[in-house]
Amino acid sequence: MCKECGCTPKRETLNILEDIMKYNQLQAQHNRKRFEKYEILAINLMSAPGSGKTTLLEKTIDFLSSKYSLGVIEGDLETERDAERIRKKGIPVFQITTGSACHLDASLIHKAMHQLPLDKIELLFIENLGNLVCPANYDLGTHLNVTLLSVPEGEDKPEKYPLIFKVSDLILITKIDLLPYLDFNLEKVGESIKKINPKAKVMALSAKTEEGFKDWIEFLEEAYKNYKQSIVHKEL
Amino acid sequence: MHEYFIVQNILKITEELMKKYPGKKIVKVVLLIGRYSGVEPDLLKSALEFFKKESPLEEAEILIEIEDFKIRCKDCKKDFSKEKWDLSCPFCDSFNTEVISGEKILLKTLELMDAN
After folding, report:
1. How many domains does chain A have?
2. ipTM of the assembly?
3. Per-residue pLDDT tens digits for B54-64
4. Does some domain include residue A17?
5. What does the alpha-carbon distance between residue A80 and residue A102 come to, in Å, rounded to a whole number?
6. The pTM is what?
């Protein structure tokens, strides 16, 4: 009721139904188009801290760098440490330090893209922040989402953190050289991932012993080949 | 931490929308949060209450509705819900299913009134 004359002020309800994440979605679409312009296959690597993302990347670079031009965007809260490790391999790398933010978003990737020689990159790896929760909500504009789950983390993680597994195209079980020492049933984990995301591929490897590594490299090469073909089809 | 970024997005969208309604203020906002959207409703609400000062939502009542998690089986055509994120069909064990609701974070409605 209004104070002056006692009338009831008119209220109107607007039906909006707008996606709250729309700004990130728009930026992600923009990034994806830009990647396609440069024919870059972009891969988002996500996991908990210490699952071996940087080690996986170092090893992947060893396998692929003679055949493909690679690039890396590193995300961390603090330090250039991970970028330094990649830089030693002679690969163009840009480090995003988020300060206190718990995830990378599409606009941070957009800014990082301007710092990289895009015309000289075929496969771009984005190492997300070590976090099994927040990165799941942010599409970065990448073509593949890959989540690492290391054996020491335990086989219950997919059930505990389903969202990140749900948005992944591939789940990499890492550090399988530790399987003899820990209770981690690969088959059981595979089944629980299937319930969360029936379309996701699951692979198991060790960056240390290189067991299973070939499958991951073949997966990347196949993905890159298919991606290049899909771009050609788009142009036609 | 994550909820703060969602709040920023909500404020940005409402600021953008309110440009079309000069002389009006928002008295109520309804958010529709999917059960599996990755957002914790209570945390989002307290973050929004805290950060709404000097924004178009300053005087708005904040209401959060939870959107149920619903799945449809493309094989046996049945709809179902689950207590956890598990896409397998409880009727025919198929994995050929699709999520109908429960994943999104939406700004559902805004209630406006004259600013004076």
Report:
1. 1
2. 0.88
3. 999 999 999 99
4. no
5. 17
6. 0.92
